[in-house]
Amino acid sequence: MSSVFANVTLAGLVKDGTYMETLHKVQRLPHLNVFEQYWAAWYAYIGNDILATGLLFFLLHEFMYFGRSLPWFIIDQIPYFRKYKIQPTKIPSAKEQWHCLKSVLLSHFLVEAVPIWTFHPLCERLGIKVQVPFPSWQRMGLEITLFFILEDMWHYWAHRLFHYGVFYKYIHKQHHRYAAPFGLTAEYAHPAEALSLGFGTVGMPIFYVLYTGDLHLVTLCLWISLRLFQAVDSHSGYDFPWSLNKFLPFWAGAEHHDLHHHYFIGNYASSFRWWDFCLDTEAGPEAKAAREERMRLQAERSAKKRV
Ligand SMILES: [Zn+2]
Ligand SMILES: [Zn+2]
């Protein structure tokens, strides 16, 4: 029996032969908006919350990841967009894309399938709710903003660690196979990397609910969808005049992460620029020249003090 309604017997009463028939019955219930109706019908129709959450997260991941990678694949085939490509001479070949697609699919089914299927029992233990109605949009917005900030912090440090010696050689090197990334390469990584960097996406909301005791699963769904969009877009290889980083200067975007793939060093954060800026780990020749100039001025100043 699903716990999607406060009254547990209600899920059994609205369940019908098909999803659409269940949805029609749910639509007759008062005080539910259209998103809540689709959500409640999904849980009521499946009738098993472990299966409903597992299937929902698996489908959400596949749909968002490949759905977001497809427009970038199409853009790569259209010469008009070449002027916006950050490394314009490096267009991914069909062979490279095919290799990447096979590897990502294998990793999704083998590595990520297990955590996805065990996710609902974990949610229940932590107190992550599936029940309708949803929290307010304002609350979801604030929680998602916080997750973006926390994930970025985790990503910065874990990614920086992955660039040291054995961590790079045996784990992170796989992700750097493509010096000019394309959308699909966002999750092209060693399983150990997928799990440890992925912890930033799932672990931060877990810490949040451990602290507050209150989080809705739909907020997690929205957060994971937006995080997938961010990850795929940052690997797209394109920087448009209308890209988000042109309006929000602290947003990393593709330009930031493309430089990381190009130079293998610097720009370790995922969503924002502040960690790399504050800790002086920005990538690229301009950042390197500015760093060297700062070091030269500092050396001059300390030499003067000694005189
Ligand atoms: Zn890296
Ligand atoms: Zn990358």
UniProtKB/TrEMBL annotation:
Protein name: BN860_15962g1_1
Keyword Transmembrane helix carried by entry: yes
Highest rank taxon of the organism: Eukaryota
Gene Ontology, cellular component aspect: membrane
Transmembrane segments: 40-60
Keyword presence, Transmembrane: yes
PANTHER family membership: STEROL DESATURASE
InterPro entries per UniProt: Fatty_acid_hydroxylase (IPR006694), Sterol_Desaturase_Related (IPR050307)
Keywords, ordered alphabetically: Membrane, Transmembrane, Transmembrane helix
